[in-house]
Amino acid sequence: MTVIDIDDLIEDPKDGGLELLDCVVVGAGPAGLTAGLYLRRFHRNVRIVDAGASRALQISRSNNCPGFPSGVAGVQLLERMVRHLRQVDGFVLHDTVSHILRHPDDSFVVCLSHEKLWTRNVLLCTGVKDRQPDVAGVDALVSADLLRQCPVCDGYEFTGKHIGVIGNSLHGVKEAAFIRHFSANVSFIEIAAKTPCTRLDVAVHSAGLHRIPGVARHLAVDADHKAFVTMDDGSGHRFDVLYAALGADPRSQLGSALGASVDERGNLVTDAHSKTSVPHLYAAGDVVSALDQISVAVGHAAIAATAIHNDLSSA
After folding, report:
1. Backbone phi, then psi, for 56, in 5-degree steps?
2. For the FAD/NAD(P)-binding domain, which residue ranges apply (predicted)?
3. CA dist., res. 261 & res. 278, Å (int)
4. Are 83 and 42 in the same domain?
5. What CATH code is carried by the domain that includes residue 256?
């Protein structure tokens, strides 16, 4: 991402033939598509830009998404949301936002790969990127749906199962302790530790977890479709499922480059109306919240879109 001052524009947006939009939404995951739907239903002139990196695309099946008692795949959910958006003449631009420029009149120029968009408001729904274990064989487990990221989403499906939690810090231990609500048979599996071993040992013991000795060196899918972990001492351990408890990185760079405040995790800080510290810059979904849930993202987006509409109406 490149940060460029507004003075670097070849022409003023007013003189360059750009249409002034009400809002540009960056990201077409559950938050971005919900916001787009609301804004179109408010008869607002909106563009939704998406780079195809939504975390929802990685969801094989969500069973805690309200209204889908049999569960829904992330791809199917997004397809349904896009169809809903089209019913109000909304659409998604498949492109990448390289940077956003702030105009002296508080409008923005959103720079894409092939065009520029001029807008009164920007709503960032850029999400997060999960951290995957840097261990050989991880791709095979992801493909087999045996490496999960979100126990809030699907811990229920593994009630009573043998669960391994891969971590390298106290954050991982806390997540493993959370998973013990679903099963008493939870093991903590260390990769290269960021927290001194003694502190990890104390935390694991205090949480009532079993710690696999050593460090994970290889992950595989065995003949029974179980997750198989080989440790650095050569020992092997089978699990019904593994969870990666390594955290996630918020995609907040577009906002922080404009001066928006972020918290200690890097999430964009917003008020009750989804406003960031930069006027007319809003944020919704996982890029804001540490509880990375579809239902939370949808709620954020509804609040943000309504706030944008009300602010435009009062201008």
Report:
1. -60, -25
2. 22-301
3. 8
4. yes
5. 3.50.50.60
Asked whether residue 154 falls in the same domain as residue 214, the answer is yes
The token pair at 101 is 């420029």
Instruction: Evaluate if residue 250 carries a pLDDT over 90.
Output: yes
What are the pLDDT digits (tens) for 269-305? 999 999 999 999 999 999 998 789 999 999 999 999 9
- What whole-number distance in Å separates Cα of residue 54 and Cα of residue 251? 11
Closest C-alpha among 41, 3, 2, 1 to residue 22: 41
What's the number of domains the chain is made of?
Answer: 2
| CA dist list (Å): 144 to 35, 132, 165, 227 | 33, 15, 17, 9
- Report d(CA 190, CA 167) in Å as an integer: 5
Are 253 and 239 found together in one domain?
no
Question: Contact, 62 vs 77, CB < 8 A?
Answer: yes
Do 234 and 194 fall within a single domain?
A: yes
| 118/13 same-domain check | yes
